[in-house]
Amino acid sequence: MRVLVTGCAGLIGSNFCRWLVENHPECFVVGVDDLSGGYEFPKCVLPIKADLANPEDQKRVAEAFPVDYVFHFAAYAAEGLSPFIRQYNYQNNTVATAFLISQSIKHSVKRFVFTSSMAVYGNNTTPFDETMLPSPVDPYGIAKYACEMDLKVAWDQHKLEYCIIRPHNVYGPGQNIWDPYRNVLGIWMYQSLHKQPMTIYGDGEQKRAFSYIDDIMQPLFNAATLPVAKNEIINLGGTVETSLNDACLELSGVTGHWVKQHLEPRHEVKYAWSTYEKSVSYLGYTETVEIGRAHV
């Protein structure tokens, strides 16, 4: 089995590559990353350093095909920054994905697994359900939704199977803690290590659900290989909702760093967590690590 994993140096991609090698040694893993968010290639992959939106780099990635499955994890997931980097946002997310979809059609990939985002839901009522009509409120969510729509059309026109995964605030080993624009737990970890106040925008009563990286590995593989996941949209992870204030308090108990600072509110969805039942029934998701105290 030949597998292409994009974003292989990032949090999800690096852990998934290692999980594949440990659990599915029959897989030959080709990893693609531009190292803009991750800092090294996993040793278990054939590495290709490439920007998927760059035409010259695309030629080298195209040479890795044919593959059986594509796991597309690559993205610059800085949702709050996306209104200020519009062109880069769409190049990095939409253009790059369109290239991979075209190659997958050309080489008859068995299934394309795409990590979208909870950002596509926008200001829908929580918990976000897969049947809701997306209504993104920022360019990052718009880009992810565009990629989802392109995959649906690729099935209609070319019969490219897909599974769209909408993960929830994934964290764990290999996480980027240096980027101040994405993943609040990573930001707090960096601030704690450097004895800086842990910053919270607004009153801290925003609610989110978090997912530990190990818990989503088998479900991601199932998204590519199980018949039931064909052409489905599935929220993955996050069975517990918690306020940012409570999450910060919980992290402080781990790090021993109790200093926090509230800043002015920013443009964001205040209540953002999703249903998880479909990930359990379709992908076999089981949550072993929780952040938060109240089950949804």
Task: List descriptors.
15 strands, four-stranded mixed β-sheet, 296 residues, alpha/beta
Note down, in words, how this protein is organized.
The structure is a single chain. With 296 residues, this protein is of the alpha/beta class. It has eight helices and 15 strands. The chain has helices at residues 11-23, 55-62, 86-106, 139-158, 184-193, 217-225, 244-255, 277-283, and strands at 2-6, 28-33, 46-49, 69-72, 111-115, 162-167, 170-171, 198-201, 207-209, 211-212, 232-236, 240-243, 260-263, 271-272, 294-295. The model has no long low-confidence stretch (mean pLDDT 93).
Find the structural class using helix and strand composition. alpha/beta
Strand sequence of the main sheet, in spatial order? 3-2-1-4-5-6-11
Number of helices: 8
Mean pLDDT: 93
Q: Which stretches of 5+ consecutive residues score pLDDT under 50?
A: none
- Radius of gyration equals 18 Å
Order of helices and strands: EHEEHEHEHEEHEEEHEEHEEHE
Describe the sheet with the most strands: 7 strands, parallel
What percent of residues adopt helix (DSSP H or I)? 25-40%
Distance between the termini: 38 Å
Say how many strands there are: 15
Shape: globular
Give the percentage of residues in beta strands. Answer: 15-25%
